[in-house]
Amino acid sequence: MAITLLYLDKGIVADRVEVGAADKVEVGAADIVEVGSADIVEVGVADIVEVGAADIVEVGAADKVEVAADRVEVAADRVEVAADRVEAAADRVEAAADRIEVAADRIEVAADRLGLAADRVEAVADRVEAAADRVEAAADRVEAAADTFEVSTGMAVEEAMEDVAEEEADWTTTSHFFLKSEKLTPKFLFL
Description:
Layout: E1 2-7, E2 12-18, H1 21-182, H2 186-189
Antiparallel strand pairs: 1-2
């Protein structure tokens, strides 16, 4: 495999140098591994772990506990607010129950009033019916009076006609007797 290598420490540039198994392994084992074992591991174990164990844990134990306490206090406040809301809801339910009870009382009073009104309507209906009966009875009386008047009138007319007939008979008899006794002419009778 042909690659281009740059040797900065020697100041030599070699183009298309054939790198084989020996070169690659040497570079890997010497340079890369050395840097990894010496620098990286050393920094990781010394600095990072030290900072983690000393600073971070120390800060975490103090601040995190304080933050946890604040969170617990906030949670307590939220629970208290929730309790207040529950209490307010209970008061609203109680107020609604009172309103329902008042409405039930009003409905009962209205039902009683309707019952009284129904009784009054029934009494008025009875009075109207009684008045209708009275009117009917009065109509019967008027009809009976009309019948009586008709009968009485008929009898009166008949009696009057009989009286007229009797008077006419008497007049005829009297006139005949007068003409015969006084010997008057019929002309005198018409004067």
